Each structure stands twice: as C-alpha cells, then as structure tokens.
Amino acid sequence: MNNLLHWRLMLAVAELGTLSRAAEQCGITQSGASQAIAQMEAGLGVPLFVREVRTMTLTAVGQQVLEKARRMLAEWQDIRLLAQQAAGIQPAQLLLASFPSVYSEKLQHFVRHFRHQYPAIEVVNLTGTDVEARQWLEQGQVDLAVLMNAPVTAPGLLLGADQWVAVLASQHPLANRSSQLPLSLAELAAMPFIVATGGCDLHSEALFQALGQPLQQVVMRVQEWSTAYALLRQNRGVSVVPASTLPADQSGLRVFPLATACQRTFVLQCSSHSSQTIATQRFLDSLQAWLSNGV
Predict the structure, then answer these.
(1) What does the alpha-carbon distance between residue 270 and residue 138 come to, in Å, rounded to a whole number?
(2) DSSP three-state, residue 208
(3) Cβ distance 191 to 218 under 8 Å?
(4) Comparing 78 with 154, which gets the higher pLDDT?
C-alpha cells in the first residue's frame, strides 16, 4: 500500500511535530509529504494525525500504527543488513569530515538515505573548519572529507559551487541602486565591514586579501550567519557572503553581485587508505546517483 519512505515520513512527523521539518528530514517537498500522509490515511481509512495551525499530533489510532511502523522498519533494516552481509558487505564505519553549513546543505539528507540503504555501513560526521578537514584527510585520520576549492580528482565528487555576493542594509546609501548593478571589491573594502566565517577559514576577509583588496574597516568578526545578518539589518556595516547562506527572509537586506565574480566549490575527496574499500565505493557510487537525480 505504501512505500518505506511513507512510513519513515510518518515517524518523522510524529517525532518533529511539523510536516515541514519532517519533509526536510526525509528529503522531500512539503507538498509531497502532505500528499503522502493523505494517501496513507486514505489507504487505512482512518486519520493518523490531528492537524493544528503549526503542529501535527498523532490520533489514538495513529499512536498504535506508529508503534507497529517502528517495529516494521526495524525488521526491514535487519533484513537489509542480513542481505548485505550475505552479499559480502561487512559492517564498517566511515569517518566523514565536513564543516557545518556544507554538511547540512549538501550531505545531511543523503547520509540519512545512505544509512537506510546500507545499514551495515555507519557514517560518522566529524565537524571542523575547512582547514581541519583537509588536514584530517591528508593525515589519514578520516576516510572522506569535504574540501573547499580543491581540484576534483577520481574518485572524488563535486558537490556544488557557491557564488559570493554583497549584502547590506536596505537603509544603506547604496541600497537605492539596482540590484543588477555589481559592487566592486574596492568600494566594499573601504566600508565598515562585518566578517562572517560560518566556521570556515576561507571567508570574506581571506577572499579580499587574496584578491589584493584588504579590508580597511572590519567592525566585527562573527561565526554564525544569522548573527551577521542581524548586524547587517542594523546597518552596522556591509558584508560579502556565499549566496547559499542567504536567509529565506531577506527583509531589511539588499543583495548585489560582485563586479569580480567569485565562487567557492565543494569537493568530496577520500583518503588514500580508504579509496579502495567497499564501504567507500558504495558511499561514492550512491552519492553520485543521488546527485545525478538532482535530489
């Protein structure tokens, strides 16, 4: 009647309390999640959830179905584990080094999918800076690492690219110009500037330095993107950030392209000692298929 994703979605909604968060965790759209839950309820002939303005809670029968669904999914994982061991995939652990923003944006949903696909292979995410991830990989302390602006060498994979953009307050003197008109690095470097790192060593200050335009008035250095955007809304300065970190709600902000186009790329690379292991090969093959499908 329903596929495994539907049952996992039901568990996620019950645990998280909202359809939007559950859909994000399962790697599907909110509308797709809503349709899936509706299909489950139609197939069973009973409502599983009570829908409120911002939350969803289980009905009495939904709670009973949930307990059976948990046992069913656990049994299915045991079946997959048994089949994989029979096929020669032994229990293994992969250490994956990444930095927070890239893991949440590029890998989190896939890792959850991979764990369901290969329960015998445990993926452990180690969070660090981009420099730490590179060091851990070179020293053989991790099996896989996300590297920034690194060449793509087999069997590594390009996860994506990210454009740098300028951001300033809507009441800033430059805010009245067309958002299609780029801002130069020289004029930005001369303004009061907020440096946001996002836990990476390759941040806007390092970017300006590398391009021969060192920042002249750094007013604050912060790690969290949300903190940087709060300061920008208060017109404490301007900043240059990766486009993927822009908030969904951009009220109070203006975003402009840079006159000198700049981007950062993310590459998943494996260590020399793990490149030939079955676990690593399964992970990379599965990720390649995931990326090819545009998930």
Answers:
(1) 10
(2) helix
(3) no
(4) 78
